[in-house]
Amino acid sequence: MSAVAARGVLVVGALGRMGRAVRAALAHEPSLVLAAALEAKEHPERGARLEHGVVVSDDLASAVAQCDVAIDFTTPAVTLATARACADAGVAYVAGTTGLSRADTDALDALGARIPIVRAANFSLAVNTLVWLVRAAAQRLGPAFDAEIVELHHAAKRDAPSGTALRLAEAIAEGRGEPKASEDDRKGERRPAKGRAKTSGLVLERAGEVGARPAAAIGVQALRGGDNTGEHTVMFIGQGERLELVHRSSTRDHFAAGAVHAAAWLAGREPGVYRVEEIFGLIPPSD
Ligand code: NAD
């Protein structure tokens, strides 16, 4: 009996920090093989030859035609264009890019009618376990415990706060049974009076006379510096006690391994928007 052929993978942003980590992780997933690599037209190493003789290209249509599943860690604009090309070609799609607006995520999710798709602000198994734990803690502790999130990332990170911090905020809201604190709250919706939230929800900055902390607010603070690959601390601050849940990462390997695992899981599935929690076998308490 002959072995099943490995499915071809397109890595989008193949020479970026995550793209390189994803290519390295592919070596440990026998069901997948690098088949195409996309980079920006202006990238100095465009045309370079990578693993399995794959040449770095900027030809989206031809790259998509050569693969079964795409893994994309780039920018929101590139992600949307690539996902649409994947949908046109019937190629499964894994989106790791952060900084997506609500309109972006809606557009990606709509493509789930045509292809299997998963998007996640964080593909680490441990971080997704943290999301699960945070949701459970928020459910049990309720808004009487003030929730604050602190994240730290490398100096070159483009978006703030991190997609993972926003996902953790969303998990707190889910756990409390409140409307989601969405990623859109980042875009221009800084709270009035420099961080003073009139209603419960995200508080992204505090400066000046902000007044008392609104009940049920979820504070998110972003720190930047050095080469840090990501740290997230979620605090539930009560009267005379504090619960902290922390994840610290020192490499990008676990994000890449999770995205490759997701790609292997997704390839060949029915069209649909799949949740990373489902792919990792995590069952949220709300399910
Ligand atoms: P990076 O800047 O190192 O890499 C992005 C790459 O995309 C660059 O090489 C760039 O040249 C390339 N690119 C730009 N335009 C392109 C185009 N038109 N076609 C193809 N490639 C193009 O950034 P990074 O640190 O690798 O992060 C990328 C994204 O992944 C960010 O949004 C980051 O927040 C996110 N991220 C997500 C996770 C996760 O687990 N979901 C983990 C880490 C980073």
Structural write-up:
This protein is of the alpha/beta class. The protein contains nine helices and twelve strands. It has helices spanning 17-26, 60-65, 76-89, 102-111, 125-141, 163-176, 192-195, 253-266, 276-279; strands at 7-12, 32-38, 56-57, 69-72, 92-95, 116-119, 146-153, 202-203, 218-224, 231-237, 242-248, 272-274. The strands form two sheets. Strands 3-2-1-4-5-6-12 form a seven-stranded parallel beta sheet, sandwiched between helices. The chain starts with 6 loop residues before the first strand and ends in an 8-residue tail after the last helix. Mean pLDDT is 90; it is low at 182-200. It binds nicotinamide-adenine-dinucleotide.
Defining traits:
alpha/beta; seven-stranded parallel sheet; 12 strands; elongated; binds nicotinamide-adenine-dinucleotide; 287 residues; 9 helices; 21% strand; five-stranded mixed sheet
In short:
The chain is α/β, with parallel strands linked by helices. It has helices at residues 17-26, 60-65, 76-89, 102-111, 125-141, 163-176, 192-195, 253-266, 276-279; strands at residues 7-12, 32-38, 56-57, 69-72, 92-95, 116-119, 146-153, 202-203, 218-224, 231-237, 242-248, 272-274.
